[in-house]
Write a structure and sequence with these properties.
Chain lengths: ~160, ~270
Amino acid sequence: MADVSMTVNGRKVSATVEDRTLLVHFLREEQRLTGTHVGCDTSQCGACVVHVDGKAVKSCTMLAAQASGSEVVTIEGLANGSELHPVQAAFKEHHGLQCGFCTPGMIMAAVDMIRRYPQGLDEKTVREELEGNICRCTGYQNIVKAILAASASMRGDAARAA
Amino acid sequence: MYQTNYHRASSIDEATAILAGAEDGKFVAGGQTLIPTMKQRLAAPSDLVDLRHIGDLKGVSVENGEVRIGAGATHAEVAGDSTLGTVSPAICHLAAHIGDPHVRHMGTIGGSIANNDPAADYPAAMLALSATVHTSKRDIAADDFFVGLFETALEEDELITAVSFTIPEKAGYAKFPNPASRYALAGVFVVKRPDGVRVAVTGAGEDGVFRVAPFEDALSDTFDVSALEGAAVPADGLMSDIHASAEYRANLVAVMAKRAVEAANG
């Protein structure tokens, strides 16, 4: 058994789990944070994407023990109370989802992407960057639209703050 | 996944010592191949020795015309290294097209070459660049390192610590990715140096990465796409599977070689 402790959405948590426990199972079953989804379970679909130490990773492809000591952010950690994160708001505004199953991973991937491209994004880059996130409903159109809109609005906010 | 025992090493010595004491242990770096393989129960190591927290395996440096990439450097770190991007952009381009952004945040160059997947990108770069693989025991030339399918010259308890290579005059990489997995159906890395050209192919060979002597000779005379006009590799010895026949891969090798030369001549 492994003693793991990490910060999840700003809260320190610890538990004793089997060494083989995947991070996604730790989050869903131990922490009851079921917003992070298991889609394919073969590292392809990206429904399980969370941020570990500020970087988007597939939580189905990492052991909870590997993440011990890290800062983890899940979809539940993005909103500020009842105020949606700008990327969540953009997905709502642009209807960047249908069934919603891939949405947590899409949004976590989008937040990571926008952070890595502070100079802004274009459609081609967004589509390339979504390589690791599969959506079977939307055809991606509105997801791409939402990410571009969120990127633009977040840059605008940053510019106004500066 | 079967049961396993997780260990976190903080130094190279500690990692090799833990592995030596394990019944059937494995090093895990980014884990982007090993963890999925364990989940499918295709691998069942008794112990996992986590290398992600070993400082000596990290970092990219460029000094006196030599590039050194720590085995623990992630694909994202190699892709985004600005100094490396100036002296050898082809390797950054290669790293930027492995898997997807989330995989690139975890996967490492050491893990990729230790695994020696016949469709992985890095082996082609290492072979074409005449790189040296540094381990916990010795230095191994890339020519001697890649032995066959998922097989390398590494001993059981030997750990890759870094790779190094001399900055090439020109280099280029082009791959035709499988549309689903993004692994190379054929990927060609081309390197031009004053003493000649090396061309290495991944994704296509039945025994893993290999060099193409006729392409190297033609390009050593004239480092231009025109030198490969009509050039071909035989389908013998190439992989044939549901994704592509050996003949199709042979054609892709020639096409990707031309694109790699174009990229190198930028």
